[in-house]
Here is the input.
Amino acid sequence: VQLVESGGRLVQPGDSVRLSCVASGITLARYSMAWFRQPPGKEREGIASIEADGTVRYTDAVKGRFTISKDSAERTLFLQMTGLKPEDTAMYYCTADTVKASLATIAQFAAYEGHGTQVTVS
Here is the structure.
């Protein structure tokens, strides 16, 4: 299984960014997918998840600004981020697991995670 994130970059406050995560070795339609982030010097934070049936969840910090989606045919998970703030600066990672879990658990114990993509808001 391989998850490869891309799309992170340096942006200004208020800008938008779309992150992508291409998955190989799994069928997205059968997995719970998620994004977590880790700001410099801080703990991991689960921010959004999408279940196999399409149910989505968000942490309060990003609700209304970020949108998680997936294209199962293209094996790609997305995170559309709008209204970015300096506190959104972090390395962003995608995860995959066959088991549903809370966002906090996903950030720590997902079965698979990528190597991350950096988003800097400054």
About this structure: Residues 50 and 56 are 4 Å apart (CA to CA). The radius of gyration is 13 Å. The longest strand covers residues 17-24.
